[in-house]
Design goal:
Elements lengths: L2 E7 L3 H13 L3 E5 L13 E3 L3 H11 L3 H7 L1 E7 L9 E6 L1 H13 L4 E5 L2 E7 L2 E7 L4 E9 L8 E4 L2 E4 L11 H7 L5 E12 L9 E3 L22 E5 L2 H8 L6 H4 L13 H7 L7 E6 L6 E8 L4 H8 L10 E3 L2 E7 L17 E3 L9 H19 L13 H12 L23 H11 L5 H23 L1 E2 L1 H10 L9 E2 H4 L7 H7 L1 H9 L5 H12 L1 H18 L17 H10 L4 H5 L6 H12 L1
Parallel strand pairs: 1-2, 1-9, 2-6, 9-19
Antiparallel strand pairs: 3-5, 4-5, 7-8, 8-9, 10-11, 10-18, 12-16, 12-17, 12-18, 13-14, 14-15, 15-16, 20-21
């Protein structure tokens, strides 16, 4: 009963993905959580995806994870963000039913016969000869395993702050884990403190939505999963309102009681998702800030006030919010609060998310200093895969920066570390045109199939999809259209008519021409699309993107290929850099600390100069 292949500690988004993928690969898994009722709890906003985060969810789904499927089945609104920008910026985002999301995750995990569950805290790690052997729980029970994945979220020595009040907790209404950090420090790990926060929840029945701007979902809503999840047919609206100078003045009256301004919170908060008091302090000349009012589910009146995270005294929060348009008679379910917790700087990890100090011990999620459900889920997924492969003496599964946003995320964490909550953005990815949300299946399903995770049916489906895309593009490159066949359509689209034959591919390069409209207008193209089963929206969108951005995609791919030479030059992780006298003192120090796997990774370490990289390349050449 007490012996497992892998033990996963924590059932947040990281822990759930880790347990699921390890179980699906064939490992016997024990998932330990302090509360079985809150698996994959949406502790903050009831939403998945967003800028760059949506790409991560699609990548997890493309490889066989569940975040995309669970999101689709519990969605109440879908929007594709940044449609007005280029496709590298398009990012899917959903509003979800908070209760259904957690329930769906638990149901998914319980259907996996390789996963057992235990409700308890973990207070110690069992280690022998530098190798993890299991865990000890708060009840004093020892569970043995070959690998352990810690996905503790904000529960390590978590302290919740509301004004001058503070109390122990990993989440409102739930206790913190107060022993594990000290045990890990005794093994030689370094820890630090971070903070995050969440806004008040309000009663939708008390809000006047007529005073706010309605934000509906997309007219033709998309989805996250490449599997046959059902498309959303009914959606709930979100609403947009704003703070004001009056609201800011009320909030300022509580600044002297704010744990952030009084210095009681030492940890760094998220730069890109600051509290409302932080926004007012940092942008004092700004007269108003946006507030997004988001429904928590289908069958509840609870709303989430996105943009109003706060740890001010509850009476100040309530007084200020009632001055916001639409909130005059607002009733509150609970105030916003801040939480400060322990994390372990991720430079202590390998690229597999295995710790350097203890073999077969993995960290995933907020314990690594990240913020966001999606970033956590991506780490849990990769830790679960690598723990499974490691205990079977199989090769590591590592994604390059040019292959996935998840690759960018992990490389940034391990190579650069983080002193503030890390959040993914498209700007962090230098190959973002290659890492679009639409082509995650093309990039990653074959890799997942190779390690036995993605099914054969799924692999064949992806192969078939992209063969249809490629064949359709080839057809359009050879299909010549005569003026009589296309000019009326071109005139209707307010673009120049042609005077002689021209390839359909060339005409599609015009920004006014969309492939769906061309297919509908030109009989011969429509016949091809129908006979070759290319009328699917996914296929048509992929064809159009590859045609319109062909030159840009090709240039970015050439750059990625060129730089991959450095990524393919391996370094021994245990090499003694002090032996190379030509390296700078800082480079020796940083390289010895990070222990890069490749020259490419070494080049991204802060403090390692181009001349240091040249020295390493020359040394390798010898």
């Amino acid at each position: 009963m007490n012996k497992y292949d892998i033990i996963v500690v924590g059932a947040g988004h990281a822990g759930c993905e880790a347990a699921a993928v390890a179980g699906n690969l064939g490992s016997k898994v024990l998932l330990i959580t302090m509360n079985m009722l809150n698996m994959a709890q949406m502790s903050c906003n009831p939403s998945m995806g967003g800028i760059a985060k949506g790409q991560i969810v699609r990548e997890i789904d493309a490889m066989g994870g569940y975040s995309g499927i669970i999101t689709d089945t519990t969605m109440i609104q879908f929007r594709m963000l940044n449609r007005s920008k280029g496709p590298a910026m398009w990012s899917p985002r959903s509003q979800n039913d908070r209760v259904q999301f957690s329930f769906a995750w638990r149901k998914q995990l319980e259907e996996n016969k390789n996963i057992d569950f235990w409700q308890d805290s973990v207070v110690d790690i069992i280690v022998k000869n530098g190798n993890v052997k299991g865990v000890k729980t708060g009840m004093g029970i020892i569970f043995n395993s070959k690998a352990v994945i810690l996905a503790n979220g904000t529960f390590l020595n978590g302290i919740i702050y509301i004004g001058e009040q503070h109390f122990s907790g990993g989440r409102i209404g739930e206790g913190a884990e107060r022993n594990l950090t000290e045990k890990l420090i005794n093994f030689g790990f370094v820890s630090n403190r971070m903070k995050t926060g969440t806004p008040a929840r309000v009663d939708g029945r008390s809000l006047d939505f007529t005073k706010m701007e309605e934000q509906k979902g997309d007219e033709n809503p998309g989805k996250f999963s490449y599997t046959e999840t059902k498309k959303l047919d009914i959606q709930k609206s979100c609403y947009l309102t704003y703070t004001s100078s009056e609201v800011h003045d009320i909030l300022r009256t509580g600044f002297d009681k704010s744990p952030m301004f009084s210095g009681r919170i030492k940890g760094r908060g998220p730069r890109y998702c600051p509290s409302i008091e932080d926004k007012i302090d940092r942008f004092e000349n700004k007269e108003r800030h946006q507030l997004f009012i988001e429904p928590e589910g289908w069958n509840t009146v609870e709303y989430y006030v996105n943009g109003f995270s706060s740890s001010l005294p509850e009476e100040i929060q309530f007084k200020a919010l009632r001055k916001v348009k639409g909130f005059k008679k607002a009733k509150f379910f609970r105030p916003g609060y801040a939480i400060e917790y322990d994390y372990f700087p991720p430079s202590q990890l390998k690229m597999t998310l295995e710790t350097r100090i203890i073999e077969n011990l993995y960290f995933a999620g907020q314990i690594n200093g990240t913020t966001g459900y999606e970033e956590a889920a991506g780490q849990g997924f990769m830790a679960g895969i690598n723990a499974h492969l490691k205990i079977r003496n199989e090769s590591d599964f590592i994604l390059k920066r040019s292959e996935a946003y998840i690759g960018v995320l992990i490389d940034d964490l391990v190579t650069k570390g983080t002193e503030e909550p890390y959040r993914m953005f498209t700007s962090r990815a230098e190959y973002r045109l290659l890492l679009r949300q639409d082509n995650a299946d093309f990039r990653l399903t074959p890799k997942s199939y190779k390690i036995g995770l993605a099914s054969h049916e799924r692999y064949i489906k992806v192969e078939d999809k992209y063969k249809k895309v490629s064949d359709f593009i080839d057809f359009l490159k050879t299909k010549a259209l005569i003026p009589n066949e296309i000019n009326q359509f071109l005139e209707d689209k307010d673009t120049n008519k042609i005077t002689q034959k021209q390839k359909a591919f060339t005409l599609l390069l015009r920004p006014q021409i969309l492939i769906k409209e061309m297919v509908a207008a030109v009989g011969s193209i429509s016949e091809y699309a129908i006979s070759h089963q290319c009328l699917n929206d996914e296929i048509l969108e992929e064809v159009e993107l590859q045609i319109k951005y062909e030159n840009y995609i090709q240039k970015e791919q050439e750059l990625a290929d060129k730089l991959s030479n450095l990524e393919n030059m391996p370094l021994n992780e245990n090499f003694d850099y002090s032996k190379i006298s030509s390296l700078s003192i800082e480079a020796k120090e940083k390289l010895s600390k990070v222990k890069p796997r490749t020259i490419g990774q070494a080049a991204r370490i802060s403090g390692v100069s181009p001349s240091d990289i040249s020295v390493l390349i020359v040394f390798l050449g010898r």
